[in-house]
Amino acid sequence: MRIRIAFLLTLLTLLTITSCDDAKRKVEKKNYADSLVNAAQKEGDLERMLALVDSLEPTGLLSDIRVNQARGWVYNRMGQRRRSEIYYQKVVDAEPKNDQQRSLQNTVAINLTSRQVAKGDYEAALKVAIETVKRMEQNKEQNIRALGALYNTIGACQLNLGHDEEAEKYYEHAYDLNMQVCEKDEKGIDSRQSIDAMVNTVIDYCNAKKYNMVLPWLQRTRDMIGLYERKPHADTISAFDFRIRLQLLEAIALQGLGDTKKAAQIYESVKDTEFGRSADGRLTANDYLLAAGRYSEAADNFRDLDHVIDDWGLDLSLETIQLFLIPKLRANVGADRKDSVSRFSIQLADALDKAIEQNKSNTTAELAAVYETEQKEAEIALHQARIQQQRFIGTAGVLVLFVVFFILYSAYRRKAEHRLAVANDKLQSAYDQLEETTTQKERIESELRIARDIQMSMVPHVFPKHQGLDLYAMMKPAKEVGGDLYSYLVVEDLLYFCVGDVSGKGVPASLFMAQVARMFRTLSAQRMKPEQIATEMNNELTEDNEMGMFVTLFIGLVDMNTGHLFFCNAGHNPPVMGDGDLGGRFMDVESNAPIGLWPDLQFVGQELESVKDHPLFVYSDGLNEAENKEQQQFGDEQLLEILHKTRYETAQQVIEVMEREVERHRNGALPNDDLTMLCLRVN
Fold it and tell me: CA geometry: angle at 210 spanning 204 and 216, to 5°?
């Protein structure tokens, strides 16, 4: 009996020692695994970092928080922002087991909320920030700077959601914490980050046009800069740049409050400083220049900042469009730089279309990431099951207890089978979601085909049979739905007609097009002159036009008895007036602005004594800017040349000839824009 007890005690001692050694080796392996991932991250080797994470995850040497943080960081650097956010959200939702994991989770939460605020997803950012703040406040002293950043984020979300009092409360909390950081900071890095957070508060109020709140927060920020400058480690260049930026923001606020003279004095005093000439400084200055109506200077700044999108690694998302492209277009419109406006309008339309298409694919990308995650979890479960099985077998061999081995192994096997079943259920769920996404995509395509049929039914396909009048028109959208339009209305012996091109493409342009067509027919029925119609439409369409959409439009009114033509050209391509049977030249038209850009414009109309026996050809830029595979445009010269070669028989024959020539020029290339043409002749 004593021998048996001694044997058991010896065996337990050996098992305990072995266990301690295993635990120590496991800690060393975890530290080594983490150092490998850190080295790959420091070198910026994204593929190697992803491969390391994928191979180390099943071993358990990296925590779930570290794995998901690393994947989120890699996909963010790859430009796959939506995928990155999914992994960052997993980090935020996890339960940390030690201080290191908690610190990593807090850092990820700050990065995630900053990204969500930048793209305008304030509700999601607010949820993450508030939950993270609750965790941090349990150990407030160690998280002062991080709490300050999150309070700032919550304030920005509340401000953009219209909760001004809540926003002010959280900004006050952030200010108190940032002041504590500046007072305790010994190195200067934390102080500069706290000052930067205060500057962001001023920017938030400027962007929200709460100019009365800007000035007191400007003073608070300057006080914080003064506290920083009195420290021996202060970076005077950084402090000076902060002050210059605050002066630019003060100029914006004063301009908004009506003190234009002082705003101009402040801007002139800082524009030639080093920060004022920098990309960041010029972008900030452009907010003031646009508000002050100094469009030419703003347009010059934007021209010199064309490299910003590439230098800053910005993709053509809706945030980039709002930050850079729309203000750039407004500046050039205000400066009356017509060539630049035309070029930037096309660039903006293409960028918007790409951003909308990207947003449509977010759901599919998210499901793909979910499927990838679930697949990895299933593989990890399988790998861990095998490791546990080997451990049980080894333990059974040491103890040489077949019965204990059988019990433990059986219990483990049931557990492993359950985990595998759960993993398989998750995989099946992911497959089901993918199948549902495919079904949704087919439904969307079907709905877009229906939308195209509805849109095409909104333009007339039966043309008036009036003695002496020959009228025909056609429209071909570049995608399922488009933004071009044509319409006409006969009121006794008067013929109203129009051809237009809405900014952008796709569904938003088609909805705007429907509104324009309806308003044209309603106002024409009231026998208004073309310039009056354009003015009234502009007043209606600029109201609550938050997306900044507009339409170029040619509006004509022909007295079919006398041939007298009244017309108004609102930023549209000049029509071709035929000479005799056809041929002809481009008409001289006034340079009115497109409809929908600015309120309270008075459009200028024109008239011709008679257009009898002179065919009139009106078109959208989908004709002269049609491109072939080499991106060569159809061009104005070819347009006139074809009209000179075409003998006029009917309006329909002219349009069919031009349509064939455009298809021949494209030579198999997909349409790059909607194509609309209208031809009429009064005999």
Answer: 80
**CA dihedral in degrees (312, 69, 132, 433; nearest 10)?**
100
What's the rounded Cα separation, in Å, for the pair 71 and 83? 9
Distance (Å, whole) CA 471 – CA 62: 74
**What SS3 class is residue 511?**
helix
Residue 552 has which token pair? 């170029």
User: 661 — phi, psi (to 5°)?
Assistant: -65, -35
Spatial neighbors of 26 by CB under 8 A, at least 6 apart, are: none
Which residues, in sequence order, are bridge partners of residue 551? 502, 595
Burial of 373 (0-12, 13-18, 19+ CB in 10 A): middle
Q: Which stretch of DSSP H or E encloses residue 561?
A: none
**How far apart are alpha carbons 355 and 353 in whole angstroms?**
5
Q: Which two tokens stand for residue 84?
A: 């990155």
pLDDT in tens, 613-647: 899 999 999 999 999 999 999 999 999 999 998 88
In sequence order, what are the residues at sequence separation of 6 or more whose Cβ sits closer than 8 angstroms to the Cβ of residue 345? 329, 503
Contact 192, 228 (CB under 8 A): yes
pLDDT in tens, 110-153: 888 888 888 788 888 888 888 888 888 777 777 788 888 888 88
At 285, which amino acid appears?
Answer: A
Asked if residues 634 and 656 have their Cβ atoms less than 8 Å apart, the reply is no
Is the CB of residue 329 less than 8 Å from the CB of residue 314? no
CA distance 514 to 4: 94
277-305: string of b/e by CB count within 10 Å (b at 16+)? eeeebbbbbbbbbbbbebbebbbbbbeeb
Residue type, 351: A
| Partners of residue 577 on adjacent β-strands | 585, 616
Is residue 672 a contact partner of residue 347, using CB atoms and an 8 Å limit? no
Contact 551, 500 (CB under 8 A): yes
> Which pLDDT does position 6 carry in this prediction?
46
CA gap 120, 115 in Å, rounded: 9
Q: Look at residues 61, 66, 70 and name the one whose alpha carbon lies nearest to residue 40.
A: 70
Angle at 337 between CA 620 and CA 484, to 5 degrees: 20
Q: Distances in Å between the alpha carbon of 491 and those of 372, 527, 606, 612, 680?
A: 63, 8, 20, 19, 16
Between strands 616-619 and 576-579, the pairing is antiparallel
Between CA 160 and CA 117 the distance in angstroms is: 9
User: For residues 617 and 683, is the Cβ–Cβ distance under 8 A?
Assistant: no
d(CA 190, CA 211): 28
Q: Are 228 and 188 in contact (CB under 8 A)?
A: yes
Q: How many CA atoms lie within 13 A of 617 on its CB side?
A: 30
Instruction: Let me know: does 78 contact 46? Beta carbons within 8 Å.
Output: yes
* Mean pLDDT on 573-592: 88
Structure letter (DSSP) for residue 208: T
Between 98-102, 364-368, 485-489, 648-652, the lowest mean confidence (pLDDT) is in: 364-368
Left, alpha or beta for 580 (phi > 0: left; psi -120 to 50: alpha)?
left
What value does the CA radius of gyration of the chain take, rounded to a whole number of Å?
34
Phi, psi of 552 (to 5 degrees): -90, 140
φ/ψ bin of 259: left (φ > 0), alpha (ψ from -120 to 50), beta (otherwise): beta
Quote the CA–CA distance of 294 and 302 in Å, as a whole number.
Answer: 13
How many residues does the structure list for the chain? Answer: 683
